[in-house]
Amino acid sequence: MIKVIAVGSLLASSALYANVVAKCTGCHGTGFEKAALGKSKIVKEMSKEDIIAALKGYQDGTYGGPMKGMMAGQVKGLDDAAIEAIAAEIKK
C-alpha cells in the first residue's frame, strides 16, 4: 500500500511540475529555444544546475537582469524539491 501511495504521489508531482513548465513555454518557447521577451538567456542552452541556480537566484533576488521582477513572481513559493523537479522536467 505504501508503494502505491508513493508512486501515486510521484506521478501527481510530475504532472504538477509539467503544468508549471508548460506555463514557462509561453515566453521561453515549447523547446525552451527562445529568449523570453527577447531579453533572457535561452534556457535549452543552460545545464540543469544553471537552471536551478537561476530559479533560486530569482527567488532571493541575486539573479537576473531585466526579467528579475517578472521571474521573481513566477518562482515565488517554489521549494527546493519543486525547483529540482522543474529543472529535471525542462532538461529531459
UniProtKB/TrEMBL annotation:
- Give the molecular function GO annotations: electron transfer activity; heme binding; metal ion binding
* Residues of the signal peptide: 1-18
What Gene3D superfamilies does UniProt report for this protein, alphabetically?
Cytochrome c-like domain
Q: Name one Pfam family in it.
A: Cytochrom_C
> What are the record keywords, sorted?
Heme, Iron, Metal-binding, Signal
Q: Which domain of life is it from?
A: Bacteria
Q: Cytochrome c domain spans which residues?
A: 8-92
Name-wise, this protein is Cytochrome C
